[in-house]
Amino acid sequence: DYRGSRLSHDGLRVAAVVVDPVTQKSDIWVLDLARGTSTKLTFDPENDGWPIWSLDDRKLYFTGSRQGRGAIFVKSSFGTGGDEHVYGSPGTDQMHSLAPDGLSAWIHTNVPGKPSWDILRMTLPDGKASLFLGTPFSEIMPAASPDGRWLAYVSDESGSNEVYVQSLTDDGGKWQISTDGGTSPTWTRGGREIVFQGRDNGLIAVEIRVTPAFSAGVPKPLFDPQIRTGIARMWDVSPDGERFIVNRAVDAPEVE
After folding, report:
1. Predicted confidence (pLDDT) per residue in 144-179, tens digit
2. Using CA atoms, how far apart are residues 224 and 173, in angstroms rounded to an integer?
3. Residue 101: is it exposed, middle or buried by C-beta count within 10 angstroms (0-12/13-18/19+)?
4. How many other C-beta atoms can be found within 10 angstroms of the C-beta atom of residue 190?
5. CB-side exposure of 229: number of CA atoms within 13 Å?
């Protein structure tokens, strides 16, 4: 029972969340696409999920529920060694992307007593986090652009989830990317395109230009891959934007 997957940067492996049919607890497995093998990476009796590859694909960051809430851990992607605690707060923390220089990470967190989610920037390796976006609304799923100049994320400030981009280098200008709902923004093609999941679960692409100033094109539907619904991101795209990996129901119709 797969619930979320991420392609490694070299496209040779997949980190997948798998739910045990008996305990209903989730662990992370690493699938070798060339050899067709799979290796269990985490073994804690509580839930582990939301895997994020390090830039060199040698480590996997993930969210583990060790004390009844989510905290961030890291482990060798080859299965050696133990789980190393990276960051935790009184709330639930989930890492969603690394900065392209590998020195910081982007997290969304749910602060106890506050119904909405905020976005944090965490520095590595000291594990210190600072607030980047904290409003009465929920800001989730932060994704840094390949050049580190822009941050895509999801906010419900309009009354529904939409994808936005905010500048990280100047006055913090902000642009709405989706026009009819969107979640799970992902950058491709060297920062020239954002792919996200639309309101009807189909995948949508938006062309991005950053010179002479930031601008976003018209959202264009790619295809409907029959994505399985769930709280995790159930798909991923290769860095070149040409290949997709998708979690689908077993009885879902074929996609052409």
Report:
1. 999 999 999 999 999 999 999 999 987 778 999 999
2. 32
3. exposed
4. 13
5. 4
